[in-house]
Fold:
Amino acid sequence: MLRYLTAGESHGPLLTAVLDGVPAGLSLAAAYIDEQLARRQGGYGRGGRMKIEKDRVQITSGVRGGVTTGSPVTLLLENKDWVNWHRIMDPGPEADMVSRAVTRPRPGHADLAGAIKYGHRDLRNVLERSSARETAARVAAGAVARRLLEELDITVVGSVVRIGGVAAAEPRLSAAELAEAVRRSPVYCADAAAAERMVEEIDRARAAGDTLGGVFEIKVFGLPPGLGSYAQRDRTLDGRLAGALMSIQAVKGVEVGAGFAMAAARGSEVHDEIFYAPGRGFYRRTNNAGGIEGGMSNGEVVVLRAAMKPIPTLYQPLRSVDMVTKQPLEAAVERSDTTAVPAASVVGEAVAAWELAAAVLEKFGGDTMREIKERVARYRAYVKGI
Ligand SMILES: Cc1cc2nc3c(=O)[nH]c(=O)nc-3n(C[C@H](O)[C@H](O)[C@H](O)COP(=O)(O)O)c2cc1C
Structure:
């Protein structure tokens, strides 16, 4: 079973991820994880914090000589900002609990509900953990899953398809073409003309002290059919992927394939007819299902989309109420992004890769990469030969 936990506060000394169930024999370099971390830190529209942090992973267990051993993998990410915050965030009794206390909950954040739930008056105790800084740990964990999938020729590519009012056209690209187009774009969007308009939209929102949301898309190439299952609700692949994407801070909607648009269409217009060619096996000419039917991958490209709400911290703050005095006040402002949809697309890739790697291991089992690769190859041959 593949599982992981993350821990750490936004301004604490470090973020930690502990990954259990990673098979032995997977080559894994810190530089590979760092590449994904750098992508998460990038994207036009981010705020001042990302200039301070330069995330670099330290692998402190489960990898030896650049290869996983089968033991739990521990990943550490230092917060460079800790030097400015250690007095505030000190776990001991000497912590300064006063100077950076937050008592004005920000609408759209965990602040108010978290304070009520855990009995805090200082909202810092909530926002330090609910902050999306945590997604750095998820990206690090997801990079390990991505590495595993790569070994099986499964590629996960995220891209931004909307920022605010600007939507991208959807070019039909191969995995490599899509990844390259995204890499070149300041907003991780494969449609270069739309990307230019997105940058302008971000500039306008920033000038107005406002923020933007958007939509990112995750495509998975090379997934064999039959991952996930219809047999039990918690084994459905779409359920698990949607849950993982929905768990990303600020994601408010997820769709698979044609998703919500299918609700307005007739059945004859959306269901993907089945064809067969010797040597190729079963295939489809359309992919409105987004590569998943009955809770299982069906062999087509998996297409997922997630809607992200606008960043809730506004430099033109919204109205709120002080937790202590109960007086109406403007919400607190912490250093913040104008939009983080490009970064969220990288987080989306990471969490999707994790769920897919878990589904692969559930189907094929195996404690070593060698076993897993052999089994996947045999299964692919079986599918082709049906
Ligand atoms: C990569 C990423 C970066 C984010 N950056 C910020 C930010 O700078 N400021 C902010 O207020 N919210 C930011 N958010 C959104 C909040 O973390 C999120 O809206 C908040 O935790 C409330 O959770 P909910 O929207 O899921 O209800 C970011 C989210 C992501 C995924």
In short: The pocket of flavin mononucleotide is lined by residues 47, 108-110, 130-132, 135, 248-250, 309, 311-313, 336-337, 340, 343-344, 347 (CB under 6 Å).
